[in-house]
Amino acid sequence: MEKAFAYICASEEAAPRLLKRYCRKVYELGYIPICPRLSDGQYLALESPDEKRTFYSIARQKLGRCRMLVVCGNEISTAMTAEIGQAEKRNLICTTLDGLAKIKGPEEKRPPLTTPFFTGII
């Protein structure tokens, strides 16, 4: 079964170890985490204005291929607000990491919605 892409929206100041934890949690909840701050920041020099523009362009393209945006962290920065706005324009699901965990957690404990017609008893 294919898993949906989930865009990780986090502060520019978030440490790589924290971004990895966010990605791990999203993965454990059954999604494929897409985190430009973690992956693209490794090969782009974000100090360069041209490469910073390239970074934001790549991030927008990745966001467009995701089904949802997951806000991670306690505060929302200006850059995060812009990403949330882009997600809303594209009618993507916007949620927090805690909200996603609450939604996915009880689902695993619920019984199936349908019961099979044939039980194997004749």
Descriptive notes:
The protein has one domain (16-105). It is α/β, with parallel strands linked by helices. The chain has a 4-stranded parallel β-sheet, with helices on both faces. The longest helix is centred in the middle third of the chain and has 16 residues, at 49-64. It is globular, with a radius of gyration of 18 Å. It is built from 5 helices and 4 strands. Strand 3, helix 4 and strand 4 (93-96) form a beta-alpha-beta unit. It has helices at 16-28, 36-39, 49-64, 78-89, 97-109; strands at residues 5-9, 32-34, 68-71, 93-96. Helix content is 48%, strand content 13%. This is DUF7768 domain-containing protein. InterPro entries: DUF7768. Residues 17-92 form the DUF7768 domain.
By helix and strand content, what is the structural category? alpha/beta
Using the alpha-carbon principal axes, give the shape.
Answer: globular
Q: Quickly count the domains.
A: 1
Low-confidence stretches: 107-122
Q: Average pLDDT across residues?
A: 86
Tell me the strand percentage band: 5-15%
The biggest sheet amounts to: 4 strands, parallel
Q: Distance between the terminal alpha carbons, to the nearest Å?
A: 33 Å
What is the helix/strand order?
EHEHHEHEH
Radius of gyration (CA) equals 18 Å
Provide the spatial order of strands within the biggest beta sheet.
2-1-3-4
Assembly annotation:
single chain
Percent helix range: 40-55%
What is the count of helical runs? Answer: 5
Query: Total number of β-strand segments?
Result: 4
